[in-house]
Structure formats: structure tokens, C-alpha cells
Amino acid sequence: MKKLASLTAAGVVITLAGTGTAVAQTHSAQPGVQQVTSRPAAAQQVAALQAAPKSAATNSRLYRTGRLAATNCSPGEIRRGSTAAYKRFLQRMTNCLNKAWATQFRKANLRFSKPRLRIVTRKVNNACGRWVSGAAGVYCSADRTMYMLITKRELRDPFAVGIARLMAHEYGHHVQQLAGISNYYFQARQRASRSAQLQLSRRHELQAECFSAVFMRTIAHSLPVPQEHWDHTVNWFRENGHKGWAQNDHGKGRSQAAWMERGYNSAQPGSCNTWKASSRAVA
Ligand SMILES: [Zn+2]
Q1: How would you class 199 by CB atoms within 10 Å of its CB: exposed for 0-12, middle for 13-18, buried for 19 or more?
Q2: pLDDT digits (tens, 9 = 90+) for 166-212
Q3: What's the CA-to-centroid distance between 101 and ligand 1, angstroms?
Q4: Which residue ranges in the chain fall short of pLDDT 70?
Q5: How far away, in angstroms, is 19 Cα from ligand 1 center?
Q6: 2 alpha carbon to ligand 1 midpoint, in Å?
Q7: 67 lies in a domain?
Q8: Ligand 1 centre from 237 Cα, in Å?
Q9: How far away, in angstroms, is 209 Cα from ligand 1 center?
Q10: Looking at the domain assignment, is residue 278 inside a domain?
């Protein structure tokens, strides 16, 4: 209890924020909240090249691959103030994610390729457009790159579980991209009404968050992920996960927490089928 309180006091919350990925119309990020954004600006371009059947999302072969491959992941500690240690952590985390998901794609008989990782210390424009104010990370599907921002504030007080979860979320979007799920999402969004677009966005984001939790479970013993750190993270999202977004494109806090728990408890991508979930489950 005491430890959790001190974690919060130490500003862990800052690192935990940044649920995920905003959609094109949702750029009004509130300052002070770290958000993570990939914009489907390149969606049309990608979609034009590739057919995007709905079944890629609702019935992905990834859902039938069982538990995510266990990965022995030891990305090391992030020493306070050490940019080098922070970078090493992000690179090693990416390796862990590559290993786990490559195995899963092999099981699903789907083609796998690694995302690029670009670590930045200031907000840079990228193939998907301008960096969204307040974002801590971005996955851009146009260049299949994860952009991870190291800020002075995070360097001062790095929280490994929070950073790992954020990165696994961005990687979750890469998984969606490779599996054809994102292409379906981008296409469906184009012909949807405003409220239907928001719901599609929530399905997309909540699934990335669930994939993230699936991965976090598999490294629980090696990172490690102490149960109290995980519980703290989920509780934080339950109470605050919706607050950084101008519209409900990421889901209510309780929806986010529910999908995190689902993924973490099952450790199976198959538990993350937000595309077939009831509208209530993605509210
Ligand atoms: Zn996201």
C-alpha cells in the first residue's frame, strides 16, 4: 500500500499515461497528458494496395495461436538520468517483442516483419504527420516505425512497467498492421458515421492495449512485473485512462482496464478480439 502511494507520489502516473493511439480527428491532446498516437494518414495509401476483409479483424488466425510465446526478457534497469540506459531498455524491449510476436505469427502462418524503432528526445514529424502534442510514443503504419520519446521528466523518474506497457501497446498496433486488422479498420472508418468511427477507433485501441497486456504477462517474471505495479497500472487506467482524450476514441477507463485484465489473465491474443465484442464492452 505504502509502496503504491509512493509510486504515485513519485510521478509514476505520468509515465503510465498514454493509453495509445489517437485517430486522425483527435489531435486536441490535453497538455500534460502523454498520449501515444499513430495516425492513419497513410491508411488510404496502404489500403489501396491491400484488400482489407472484415474477417482479418474479426476472425484473425492470431486468435487461434494460444498463449503468447514466453520470452525471457531482461532489458536491464533504467538508471535515473541515463539516456543510454533508457535507450538500451527500449531496444531490448523491442527485441523481446519481436521474438514473442514472430513466434506467434509463425504459429498463425502469417507473414511477420519487425517494426523500426526510432528513439527521439524531441518531438519530430514523421511519415504520418506532425507529432501530437503531449505524445510519448507513436506507431506510424506508413513507415512501420515506433517512435519513442524520452523526456526529461521520464528520465528523472523512469518506471519500467509503465514504459514497457506503452511500448507493447505501440507494438500492438504493429501486430494489427501486419495481421491486416488495421487496414480493415482504416477502410471501415472511411465509410462510417462519426459515432461509428469512434467505436471502431475504440475497438482498435482497446485491442492494442489488450495485446500489450498479453505480452506483459509473458515477461512478468523476467522484466519483472511485480503484481502491485501491474495492479497499480490497471487501476490508474480505470480511473484516468479516458481523461487525456477530447472524444471517446479510446474507451472509458473501465473498458480499458477490463481489456488489460483480459489480456493479462489469459496471456492469449485470442482473448483480445474486440472486433466481435458487444458495444458495451467497447464503450
Ligand atoms: Zn494506440
Answers
A1: middle
A2: 999 999 999 999 999 999 999 999 999 999 999 999 999 999 999 99
A3: 17
A4: 1-50, 133-134
A5: 6
A6: 31
A7: no
A8: 14
A9: 7
A10: no
Boundaries of domain holding 178: 2-51+76-272
- Between the CA of 272 and the centroid of ligand 1 the distance, in Å, is 14
What pLDDT does 244 receive? 81
Q: Which pLDDT belongs to residue 192?
A: 96
Residue 180 lies in a domain: yes
Q: 128-150, pLDDT tens digit by residue? A: 898 876 678 889 999 999 999 99
Q: Which residue has the cell 477490463?
A: 258
Q: Considering its fold, how many domains does the chain have in total?
A: 1
How much is the pTM?
A: 0.84
A 10 A CB-CB count for 72 gives 11
Round to whole Å and give the CA distance between 157 and 160. 10
Sheet with strand 35-36: strands edge to edge: 35-36, 135-140, 145-149, 116-120
Task: Kindly state whether residue 187 falls inside one of the protein's structural domains.
Answer: yes
**What does the block give as the cell for 91?**
531496444
29 C-alpha to center of ligand 1: Å? 14
Distance 3 CA to ligand 1 centre (A): 29
